[in-house]
Amino acid sequence: MGIMPSSFLVLAAFFFAATYSDMIDIRITEDCTTPNGDKGKCKLLEDCPHAVSLFANPSKEIVNYMQGFLCKFSDPALPGAAICCTEPPPKRAVIPDKRYCGFQHSDDLMLDIRKTSIIEFPWLSAIMKKDQGGEDVVTCLGTLITNRYVLTSGFCAEKTGTWVRLGEFYVKNKTDCETWKSELNDCNQHEDFQIEEAVPHPFINTGISSLNDIGLLRLEKSVSYSDYIRPICLPSPTEKVEVQFFTSGWDDSQLKIKIPSTLASDRECLGEGSALSKYSKCVRYQNVEGGRESCHVINNGAPIMASAKYQWYLEGVSHMFYQKNGSCFAKFTPIVPYMDWIKNNLRS
After folding, report:
1. Least enclosed by CB within 10 Å: which of 12, 214, 257, 282?
2. Distance CA 288, CA 124 (A)
């Protein structure tokens, strides 16, 4: 038998490669697992950015390393070889720089400690829904921490409303105006943002212990900052916790209020012989306007805030209000122990 012409061998090789490539096309995007245990999809080498970057300057070690990523049906000696390609992790959102977060113009004014201004606490977020009569109602509270995320309680993230409202003062008004020294000082119109994703802590326990009662709400679109809408700062583990706190929300008349409070001891909060963990703290309300204390004056998820040198920090998220010995207490989830969880669940 004579030797086959080289042109025939080339044609046969091309035909086989094309057939093999068609088979590869059918099986591309199959689920696979890398040698590192990461989940991925079978893709052609040129369609996997991670692999392409490795082969930009290939070495023997890199080639041997990538052999383990070949999909089972793929032959590295043939064109169109497929590898198990993992998707790059989503880009993390950036916590606002401390040069910009936690500032409010109301700190420039001499305001009554019991009253709020329309520009006060511009990070305060109302989690909203429609009631049976079609009216807008506040179901939970939260705090803006980036231009896409609101931090709230896990309970509120699990049983959230439909949208988040920012820049609100009086819920019944579309536009709020404020008079300062007998003159009309400023007006503002609130903004509504649909909730794209709710992320409660995976190990939330909303029972008596209320452990891990924290959650995130991702907004459908980015927020544009203004005097009325801006993020609060998140605390640092090295910063000293202030004794004086404030919380804010909307009362029964749907008007924004603020309540001063102080950090309570475990004994004050729970009684003799009981102790809170580092994942749960407690504040005691000071008198609400008019000298009347109300333990349920605001909603779940309200921020526990402290100011240091006119810059505000979110120290906790409230999740339980109750009365004890004539005083009102609010248990809250402190932020510092959950900083890693918060940062790891933010996307840009």
Report:
1. 12
2. 19
pLDDT at 115: 66
How many Cβ atoms sit within 10 Å of the Cβ of residue 68? 11
- End-to-end CA separation in angstroms for the chain: 67
Residue 15's pLDDT is 34
Smallest CA-to-CA distance from 114 within 239, 246, 25, 312 is with 246
Name the token pair of 44: 């052609």
* Weakly modelled stretches of the chain, pLDDT under 70: 1-28, 49-63, 65, 73-80, 88-93, 106-115, 178-186, 206-209, 239-242, 272-275, 287-297
> How far is the C-alpha of 84 from the C-alpha of 32, rounded, in Å?
6
Write the CA distances from 201 to 27, 285, 312, 340, 342, integer angstroms.
Answer: 37, 27, 24, 12, 9
Which token pair is 24?
């590869």
Report if pTM > 0.90.
no
Return phi, psi of residue 233, to 5°. -85, 150
The count of other CB atoms within 10 Å of the CB of residue 17 is: 13
Residue 219 has a pLDDT of 96
Phi, psi of 344 (to 5 degrees): -75, -15
DSSP letter at 289 equals G
Please state, in angstroms and rounded to a whole number, the distance separating the CA atoms of residues 27 and 199: 34
- What string of DSSP letters covers 73-87? T--TTSTT-EEEEPP
Q: 12: which DSSP letter?
A: H
Write down the pLDDT at residue 199. Answer: 93
**Region label for 310, one of left (φ > 0), alpha (ψ between -120 and 50) or beta (otherwise):** left
- Phi–psi pair at 64, nearest 5 degrees: -65, -40
CB 200 within 8 A of CB 158: yes
Question: Which domains are assigned to the chain?
Answer: 20-85 (3.30.1640), 124-345 (2.40.10.120)
